Amino acid sequence: MKNNKIEKQQIIDNLKLSSLTPSQQDKIIKGLMDNIAARINMAVLDNLSSDEKKEFFKVLKSKKKSSVLKFLNKKIENFSDLAEKISVQTVSEFKK
Fold it and tell me: Exposure pattern of 33-55 as b/e (b: 16+ CB <10 Å)?
């Protein structure tokens, strides 16, 4: 829990949201995280074949985060780099 508070505070500081109420901050952070997740999902689907997509959806249904990440790291070269790049790009666009 402490890590999440530290990360949230870093996001608030980075995006200069400290003048907003905690409720407003939470709303903005949630929207940003939802946007990042959607962009990563689109990139994942763009990188998978039809058969891999079917397999991916089966893994998603298991709701096991570790299985999903294992699948993505196996099927998409440099998945973590891709996710990081999308995250940085999305935050950068938000700052504009």
Answer: eebbeebbeebbeeebeeebeee
Residue 86's Cβ-count burial label (10 Å; 0-12, 13-18, 19+) is buried
Q: Which residues contact 34 (CB under 8 A, 6 or more apart)?
A: none
Q: In terms of C-beta distances under 8 Å and separation of at least 24 residues, what long-range contacts does 64-73 make, across chains too?
A: 72/44
Outline where 15-62 has alpha helix (H). Answer: 22-47, 50-61
Domain ranges of the chain: 2-95
Reported as a single tens digit per residue, the pLDDT across 25-52 is 999 999 999 999 999 999 999 999 999 9
pTM across the whole model: 0.81
DSSP state of 19: T
The structure tokens 């530290």 sit at 6
